Amino acid sequence: MHIPDGYLSVEMCILTYALAIVFLVWSWKKAKAAYSQSIAPLLAISSAFVFAAQMINFPITYGTSGHLVGGTFLSILLGPYAAILSMTIVLMMQAVFFADGGIFTFGANVLNMAVIGALSFFLIQLLIKNSKRKGWLFSSVFVASWLSVVLGALACGLEIGFSPVFSNAGGIAVTVPAMLFWHVLIGLGEAAITTTLITQLHRLQTPILNSLTFLRGSGQNERIP
Amino acid sequence: MKGYLKALVLTLVCLAILIPLASNAPDGLEKVAETLGIEEHEPIWSGLMPDYTIPTIDNPYLSTLLAGTAGVFLVLCVTFLLGKLIVKK
Predict the structure, then answer these.
(1) Which CATH architecture has domain A10-222?
(2) Is the CB of A98 less than 8 angstroms away from the CB of B50?
(3) Element (H, E) at A53
């Protein structure tokens, strides 16, 4: 879902950069207030893992593939604010060193994958409310990670559809359904991988999931097993 | 800290195993562009390791594995610094 340079109009690049910067400043401030202990090692290894996972494309159908985005996964491990920052670094390294995703379209990619991905944390929170049942938690993770990819694709479809390169080919009436069609399927892969990772981390009783007690305030730490 | 090291080694081992199995088919967005007949422009910036390869290494597996490993360590270092900055008093 990484948008390369040339797909978006100048206006769309400016708009998406501005929105991305607003979210980054917000998550930076929130993250600064949220962590009482060092999350540096956990942040580093989980981001590095997501970078590696994004390299591995899985086949979907009709000669199309997808890969894990990992926004929901990171947000469960790190909380939504650090997850936005972490995913932004992953996207930045991909754009700068690997030419995966453009430089001018970086803002759009941050919105579609880092921001929308990490905000799915709040959907999980909403879905599980006070439920202590593990099965319900894992189902919520499945739904949230699927939706994060579908909504990211919707945003991407709108961004490219409103830009001249694609608006001459039919605009959002074409790009949005096409993006949604593929990402409804790719999202299932995202959901399967994310849910597997979280269940396994939970089964291994790793202290990683408990480390969310690092989060101060807003009651986030009570929500996750 | 030992657990983190284990996770890092596991990540690199998985990467080494899964690279040859990864699909080369276009991803969702590339497929949409392809269907609509939109060509990707010559990139204005192609990075040091374009398409996750190291241009000077001929073997495609090694080239991608080394590029991936470099990327893993790059992300590791930058996000570690980020983590330190977040909690800095």
Answers:
(1) Orthogonal Bundle (1.10)
(2) yes
(3) helix A40-54
